[in-house]
Amino acid sequence: MKLMTALVATTLATTAYAAPRAQASPRAATSDPLVPAVVVLQDQAHLPARPHTTRLARLRAAEQALRATAANTQPAVLHALASALSAGQVADVQPLWIQNAISLRATPQVLATLANRPDVASVEPDRVLVAPEPDPALDSATAAVEANLSQVDTPAMWDLGFRGQGVVVASMDTGVDVTHPDLAGSWRGGSNSWYDPNGQHPTTPTDVNGHGTQTMGIMVGGDAGGTSIGMAPAATWIAVKLYNDRGTTTSTAIHLGFQWLLDPDHNPDTADAPQVVNNSWDISAGGCVPDFRQDLQNLRAVGILPVFAAGNYGPQSGTITSPANYPEAFAVAGVDGSDVVDPASSRGPSPCAGATAPALAAPDTSIRTSDLFQGWITDTGTSVGAPHVAGALALLLSALPGLAGSADAQQNALTAGAVDLGPPGVDDDTGYGRLDVLAAYESAVSAPDFSVGVSPMSVRTVAGGTATFSVDVGSLGGFDGDVTLSASGLPAGADATFTPPVITSGVGTAQLDVTTSEAVAAGSYALTVTATSGGTTHSAPATLVVDPPPDFGLAPSPASRSVVAGTGTSYGVSVGALNGFTETVDLSVEGLPASVGTATLSPANVVGSGSSTLSVTTSPSAPPGSYPLTVTGTSGTLTHSAPVTLVVLPRSDFDLTANPTTATIARGKSATYTVSVTGAGGFNGSVAMSVAGAPSRSTISWSKKTVVVAGSTTMTVRTDRSTPRTSYTLVITGTSGALRHQVLVTLAVT
């Protein structure tokens, strides 16, 4: 088969169904200025696990809390987007509540502005996920019960009367072919049993790829092909068609799919959510990509254990994929019919703190299941391993409906019944071992246990502050012991306090306060809350985020301005609030000599964040040159400075000179003066000439009445015989626009 990414198609030398992978959206690489993204808000709903409440109550309370958090916190962001939406800088706005987030397309500038908002936790790419291409080969029936089902003790559960009856199984995949004879009769039916977030097949379950039909066959398929292929043939199914008919999906569609699972009929007063959900897809071949952790945490809070294929990127270590490598997921590796690990099966350890991934292994080699065109196919890969575990969960929940109250209890039962394949204990190849559904059932029946959960998943504080978590302990199988709580992973300078430190009688909630000193370094810290009762220990992850203390940033713009002496200019000064800063910043400027001009800031103080204008007015006599100025912002003990430069240019002007300065003539004779014009500061205009003070009964003539820089003209003064004999002061004036200069010459008439 071929595993395709958004940018390349890579041919694999195997018929394994690798989980689909996601890459950054190709839209971001085009000329389209609007980038698809998911804006994750800081506030997330508090959903403690409550295994002792009814399923309807859990689902209703969870949905109400999730919707309320979104309704209370999203309007401020949506209001801020209104003008950008009108300007075409934002499009396709889709509020979400399964995770308090907003999907949209926006310009990089808008996304950068959103990322700096204090109520926004992060801006994530709206990733594009590409579906796998299934192998079209068909297979024929060879046995009454397929060997993979017998390998995990499925027939023994059937013999006890448990075949998945009363349980609803969901698929998040490429869809399901509802016409297949092994699946048609088990679809729940109705508008609350099928969801296509891409809108191409709104009412009828459809699969143009085959991958989803194949995984669903392993979960609930019947025996129409001559052999029993499904783990829980009496269960009913619903499905989300994550991928469009071109074989791609997005992060937004996945969020919408998880959101639909919590309330398929959009009525919180009905408990129509599935008890089981299978996910044979991934978003990366390495690293911890946390885009969907909140979604999975919310599923677990209502008792839905998210089952994921581990991925087919082995045999190297550290190849377990996201979301399978989350602590909230239940990752399934693959083995063949002899319990030998599939070489392609992804390995741990998980890069996500607090995760055991893979958690379990299941058959994934040469698995016969349903396919398109009402046929059957033989598949290999962890994509078909994971549905074995989802189907096993359906059998367990059919036998023990009380397990539906706790995803932790379901996980504990599956791992407790596992057949250990490697060294004793958990390993990075198969986790706790290979699935054995009968042993899981026997473990759940015989062993009282408890669950522990921490919410919210992540809490932020500043150094010197306190972060508060809620720790919920639930009783499973009649457990009524005392549970002692402890925390590890704390940074130096932080202390943890549980109130109360011991949960009595197996059920209750404690408040965990993590108090930090001012010396704690800013950063993200992976915490582990451990609950212990006798020889039984369970743990749950949490994240402490220590933000830097409140502060402000100072940014004048531009860095330099140039002015002509005698004129003015201005700079913008931006004050930005950091880490919740809300105080007043007093602004000042230094470095401008009084002989150059004056500088003022308006306003002179800014509260929290805002802007000011630095205005500079220069003197006409300001000496040309470069003057470094310093803008300073002060708030209490916090002081920040930033430089700007003022460049003063010479004024654009001209100068006049005359030669000679004195001329002596007899009456009736003429005197001649040469008047020259020179420019300064880039002056290149023309100068009009005039003269005053000439003797009576004389005439003035110019060789050029207008002079262009640099140039000269000749002024001739002609007297007659009656011109009085005396000395005259002539005032020669040059005018260019508002500029006017004069030069004096003397004429002596004898």
Spell out the key features of this protein.
750 residues, alpha+beta, seven-stranded parallel beta sheet, elongated
List the helices and strands and how they pair.
Layout: E1 2-4, E2 9-11, E3 21-23, E4 35-41, H1 55-86, E5 90-96, E6 101-106, H2 108-115, E7 120-125, E8 128-130, H3 147-151, H4 154-159, E9 168-173, E10 194-195, H5 211-220, E11 236-241, E12 248-250, H6 251-262, E13 276-279, H7 293-301, E14 305-309, E15 330-335, E16 360-363, E17 367-371, E18 375-379, H8 382-399, H9 407-416, H10 437-446, E19 449-455, E20 458-462, E21 466-476, E22 483-488, E23 494-499, E24 502-503, E25 508-516, E26 523-533, E27 536-547, E28 551-557, E29 560-564, E30 568-578, E31 584-590, E32 597-602, E33 605-607, E34 610-618, E35 625-635, E36 638-649, E37 653-659, E38 662-665, E39 670-680, E40 686-692, E41 698-702, E42 706-708, E43 711-719, E44 727-736, E45 739-749
How is this structure best described in words?
- The chain is of the alpha+beta class and 750 residues long.
- Helices cover 16% and strands 39% of the residues.
- The chain is built from ten helices and 45 strands.
- Helix 5 runs parallel beside helix 8 (382-399) and helix 9 (407-416) crosses helix 10.
- The longest helix is centred in the N-terminal third of the chain and has 32 residues, at 55-86.
- The model is unreliable at 1-32 and 136-143 (pLDDT under 50).
